[in-house]
Structure formats: structure tokens, C-alpha cells
Design goal:
alpha/beta, Arc Repressor Mutant, subunit A, Rossmann fold, four-stranded antiparallel β-sheet
Length: 239
């Protein structure tokens, strides 16, 4: 299985390529953002891209945005020494599927790769007969899973790919308390407690968009437990 590693630190490149080769992967390396972008665009055989944020030339955020703008759907795993919530959100907003903070263990990298490849296979490679309705709805909110569009009271809601996946997961589990870790695992496919504050940030994004033309709250915080989507507040422990 072919992977592309876009990384400029020789020591990191050596550890990753050696470890992934032993795990059965074929790894190609690009030492900067410009060459990495061209390799990714010109070689459709790569099944996953490992992308460092701090790169010569184009940085990882710019590379990721360019790949998504070109409608390249290959999973992208970002590597960075910047582990703040703001940096993680920036990476995910640029189109990355997962985010791993340096330093990391090779076993964790391999687990993230397997998770992303498994999610990609489940979503696109295996034909599945639809078993759920194309339209998910709650109160006056609708999400069309065929066209990937949302609207409330007939007004379109512009969503990023991550916001769409989050709203879809919430609407598939209405009136159910979902923990932050559950949301991380199901929306991002992350098998580790990376940083649950990322969930709070995206919930806030989603709330603002959903409530832009209608202030009636649908996404509720269940104090100490997580989040729930429902028509009205469940009890005094939600807001």
C-alpha cells in the first residue's frame, strides 16, 4: 500500500519510513510543500498522505487546502509540534482527517493510519445499500445526506466537511447524550483522546450556523457528560 510522507526533518523521515516499511507500507517522501503537492496531485495511487505542518515552501496548511481544492479525497494525517486547540482546529479546517502531535510513538502513527484507511474503505470502496433515510431531520432542521446540504426553515446552512460529519452524527443519534470522546471517535475516526476541546470548538461553530436565522437551540450541552441534539431542553442539567 502506497503512502506519501511530506516531511523535511531527516530524523523523522528515517523513523517513519523504516517503521512503516516494516509494517508493509510503501512510503514515498517529499522534502518540502511544493514537491509534496505535485507528487500528491500527479500520483493517484497514494492511499494516504502524512503531512507535516512546518515545511519549506508551502506549509502543510496550504498544501492541504490546495489538495482539497483540487478535490483530492485521499485521507490526510497532519504531523506537527504545535498541539494547541487552535492549531488542531486550523489543521482540521484546512481539510485534514486527523492530527498527530510530535513527539509521538510509531505504534500510535500506525494505529491512526489503520483507522483512516478503514474509515475510507467503509465510506467509499465498498458498495453499500442505503439503510437510512437520505433526509435526516429534527424540528425545522434538515440534512440531506445525498447532496451533503443542510437547511433550517428553508434557509441553506453552509457547512465545512467536518461540520457536516458532526451534524450528521448528531442527527443520527437524536435525544441521546454523546460524550466528547464518542464524538471524536465517530466524527474524526480518532481512537485516542487527542484533545476533546476540539469537539467544543466545532459544536460552537455548528451552533452559530444553525441558530443564525433561528435562535431556538437544538444542540444542548449536558453538564459533565457531553452533548445532545433535541427539540427542547431535557432538564436543568442541559443548556
Amino acid at each position: 500500500m502506497k503512502l506519501l510522507l511530506i516531511e523535511d526533518e531527516p530524523a523523522v523521515v528515517s523513523v517513519i519510513t523504516r517503521g512503516l516499511a516494516e509494517a508493509g507500507y510503501e512510503v514515498s517522501v517529499a522534502p518540502d510543500g511544493n514537491s509534496g503537492l505535485q507528487m500528491a496531485l500527479n500520483n493517484p495511487s497514494f492511499r494516504l498522505i502524512i503531512l507535516d505542518v512546518m515545511l519549506p515552501g508551502l506549509n502543510g496548511i496550504e498544501v492541504c487546502r490546495s489538495l482539497r481544492k483540487a478535490q483530492l479525497e485521499v485521507p490526510i494525517l497532519m504531523l506537527t509540534a504545535l498541539g494547541t486547540t487552535e492549531n488542531i482546529v486550523m489543521g482540521l479546517d484546512s481539510g485534514a482527517d486527523d492530527y498527530l502531535v510530535k513527539p509521538f510513538k510509531l505504534q500510535e502513527l500506525e494505529a491512526r493510519i489503520r483507522s483512516l484507511l478503514r474509515r475510507k474503505t467503509n465510506n467509499t470502496d465498498i458498495p453499500v445499500v442505503p439503510t437510512s433515510p437520505a433526509i435526516l431531520s429534527l424540528a425545522d432542521l434538515e440534512l440531506d445526506t445525498d447532496t451533503k446540504t443542510a437547511n433550517r426553515q428553508g434557509k441553506t446552512i453552509a457547512l465545512t466537511a467536518t461540520e457536516y460529519r458532526l451534524l450528521e452524527y448528531l442527527l443520527k443519534n437524536p435525544r441521546k447524550v454523546l460524550s466528547r470522546l464518542e464524538i471524536l471517535e465517530q466524527v474524526w475516526g480518532i481512537e485516542f483522546n487527542m484533545n476533546t476541546k476540539v469537539v467544543d470548538v466545532y459544536i460552537n461553530y455548528l451552533r452559530k450556523k444553525i441558530n443564525k436565522h433561528n435562535p431556538a437551540e437544538l444542540i444542548h450541552t449536558v453538564v459533565g457528560l457531553g452533548y445532545m441534539i433535541r427539540e427542547n431542553k431535557a432538564d436543568e442539567n442541559t443548556y
